[in-house]
Amino acid sequence: MTYRELTDTENILKLREVLHTLPDFTRDFFRSISTTTTTKTRISYAYDIRIFFQFLLDENPAFKNMKMTEFQLEVLDQIKAIDIEEYLEYLKAYRDHDNLDQIVTNGERGLKRKISALRSFYAYYYKMEMIQTNPTVLVDIPKIHDKTITRLDADEVALLLDYIEHAGDTLSGQKKAYYEKTKTRDLALVTLLLGTGIRVSECVGLDIEDVDFKNNGIKVVRKGGNEMIIYFGPEVEKALKSYLEERSHITPLPGHEHALFYSTQKKRMGVKAVENLVKKYAQQVTTTKHITPHKLRSTYGTALYQETGDIYLVADVLGHKDVNTTKKHYAAMDDARRRKAATAVKLRES
Question: DSSP character for 242?
Fold first, then answer.
């Protein structure tokens, strides 16, 4: 079973567990989107819809003594636009019902995602003529303010790779032993992220069979489930080959034989492990930038755009469905070039 098949199976089972906590009628909606969304998206929707029903139980006196599973479809027609606005306010800070000591907060993106999930939920029942109203379309979706992209500069990229390669020179004892054990893997992993711009989820999902040295490409499964070949250069090739030499001497745990990157427990590495690995090394290079695997992706996107000036190529390689997403992040770099136009043309010779 491939990593994606295994993840999908786990997600389907997890989704069934969540659905048992939701009103029965919600299953129609999740069945309807099963062919157009990923399992990960459906779980996110399920959690988001559950928060909405929890809000009704917590904040609406009419539902005070009810259980979530007792809600009937008719409840959707009882909700007004003002209730949706109150829900958005509730989402900014509320108690986690699984851990009452924990306060959950949502920023702009969290609010937008949750209201978008609710809109899709309502739209299905409205389209199927099972409800008469859709108050979610009367409420504005929160505006997302653009953030400055954090990325590594060219010299910081070199420093990061040099540090991973030579950090052992300053270590001793157990720390040095652990570093030496993971150095080649870590260098290959970070070089791959910096040299291809793939997402961390795509990286941990790679199998050994996905690497093709004949064409210097890797086969990745993108966000929506589509497969794509991403090509890499000589530096990535060298780092991967060094790691694969070491990997050939590892006997993995059953079920993890195909994974490209192994943890020290001889299992497929997870997203969290890669995030911690990147954070650990990046902190030694820059203390002012919070570097994550996604920031390495931004670093690659920036470098590719600066080298080629081709925003469509950057969008394609990064797997952006909409080139406007790419433009928002990278085309702003054209500003410095445009400034040169101010002094490039002389109107009168002095």
Answer: H
